[in-house]
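Dig into what follows:

_____
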Amino acid sequence: MSSKLVSGYCDPRFSGVADVFAAALESGYEVGATMAVEHLGERIIDLYGGYQDAAKSRPWQADTLVNVFSVTKGLVATCAARLIEQGKLDIQRPVSEYWPEYGCAGKEQTLVRDLLCHRASMFGFREPIPDDQWRDWSLFTDLLAAQQPFRTPGVSQSYHAMTFGWLVGELIRRVDGRSVGQYFKQEIAEPLGLDFKIGIDRDDMQRCADQLMAVGDKTTSRAEWLLYLPDILLSKRLRDIKTAVRLGDYRVAFSQALGAADIINTEEWRMAEVPAANGHGTAASLATLYGVLSNGGARGDYHLLTPQTLDLATQVHSPGPDGALFGLPYKFGLGYMVDSPMTPISVVKGRFGHSGIGGEVAFGDRKNGLGFAFLNNQQHTMLNLYKTANQLSKQLYKDIASL
């Protein structure tokens, strides 16, 4: 690798990965990005480059923080799994046993597992929510506690794009007493030395890269054309997409202006705890987390999760199709994606982690003892959303196979 835009470290055996990373930045496809990989407990790649802003006036640094969107859900899943392992949270018990106010309006029999694998039918808000009060935790949890579900809980899967964080986060708070951001910091980030936060401090603001969101993506409108085609002409996959478009869950789940830069690049958003969508950190931190999980769940004297707990958390608890994700066959464990179409997670059975709407991907691979993370700040259109992450992962596994 020889690029003025890229800094960091890459084991020479994986120079092909560094070349792919450099090409994504040099071509202008990515504005700024970072990637890291742990393999068998060793950091083999830790690269960063490009710029933190659209004007390309602030170079990406080793400690640059970036909003990882839904990749945050994988961290929340790890927090929940830790509480499950400790016997403080039972996935087969009703949510109302931990959060009494939730047990109303048709939600009385909702199980903890339903919240974790997107089967609670609470994938959005029935009433408009403010876009400038993200730090008011109880505002969102009170609305959800009182709200009627969109369908019978436990029956179908529809991705809880934003509500997942408040629902599972409130469970964590009720069980442990700490907010999910505090729990992650004290129980996981600090022991492992991770530079990652759910709700950053004001002093961290200067380290944050701007998120540059795509405009004019017509993928949704193209999918809506399926409504005019008879089922007999469609494959099962396309019939699932058609059903999802007709139900319109995606409009509810993604109704908030999450993609608006005037929201996600503000202090209000960054300092809030929005556990479904606003974790900020480095690729190196995520690679370490998934590297630990993929190598027995412990590092040194610190124990994160047992292999048995991770077996439970990464088995398929909900197989799709997903009503809010256009009927695609997303598969969920207990908060982790175990099949995320169009991303590296879906390529090989056994990977677990989470992808984000900006193109970010972080996952673990227990078979190969690997933790992988790619983060960027330029969102692309839906069909190309994970192009760079896929290219990097493909080259990485090619290089591993040649060892």
Observations:
- The longest strand covers residues 42-50.
- The chain has a mean pLDDT of 92.
- The chain is about 35% helix and 15% strand.
